[in-house]
TrEMBL record:
<protein>
    <recommendedName>
        <fullName>EF-hand domain-containing protein</fullName>
    </recommendedName>
</protein>
<dbReference type="InterPro" id="IPR002048">
    <property type="entry name" value="EF_hand_dom"/>
</dbReference>
<dbReference type="GO" id="GO:0005509">
    <property type="term" value="F:calcium ion binding"/>
</dbReference>
<dbReference type="Pfam" id="PF13499">
    <property type="entry name" value="EF-hand_7"/>
</dbReference>
<dbReference type="InterPro" id="IPR011992">
    <property type="entry name" value="EF-hand-dom_pair"/>
</dbReference>
<feature type="domain" description="EF-hand">
    <location>
        <begin position="85"/>
        <end position="120"/>
    </location>
</feature>
């Protein structure tokens, strides 16, 4: 196991322990999606159901151990954790959406895209996402999240 894999394993183990409320070495199987998303993996609901079915132990169908979770989730998490060009990809994705190169996206545009494209988000999910991304005057300034490919961060605008 490489150093990066050891760090990733430790991060997963620490995160899993947050959901192991009884300190029994298990957590509710319904938290599989939350754990995956916290690790940067965003499966569709259909894919998540498939993942849960792979983790599921018929003897204890409501809980999962870290080993059961890792058996299925490790390949997904490890593939997502590959940091190659992640800042560059994110920055370019924002630039694609920001046709006028203003450095921000209108929140209403973001909501419209996320509720109509791909797997649509619910209004509750949209509101939670918007409240967590740091909106100012109806605008989401993406520069703080996406590094410019040159290595510098795009400037936030006040």
């Amino acid at each position: 196991m490489t150093d990066a894999q050891r760090r990733l394993f430790a991060k997963i183990k620490n995160l899993f322990s947050v959901f192991d409320k009884s300190r029994s070495g298990t957590c509710d199987i319904r938290e599989a999606g939350t754990l995956l998303r916290a690790m940067g993996v965003y499966p569709t609901e259909a894919k998540l159901k498939d993942i849960v079915m792979q983790i599921l132990d018929p003897v204890q169908p409501t809980v999962m151990t870290l080993d059961q979770f890792l058996r299925v989730a490790w390949p997904l998490i490890a593939a997502q954790a590959d940091p190659r060009d992640s800042d560059d990809v994110l920055y370019r994705a924002f630039l694609t959406l920001d046709k006028d190169q203003r450095g921000y996206l209108d929140v209403e545009t973001i909501k419209r895209m996320l509720s109509t494209m791909g797997e649509p988000m619910t209004s509750e999910e949209l509101e939670e996402m918007v409240s967590s991304i740091g909106v100012k005057d109806g605008k989401f300034f993406y520069g703080a999240l996406a590094a410019h490919p040159s290595g510098r961060l795009s400037a936030d605008r006040d």
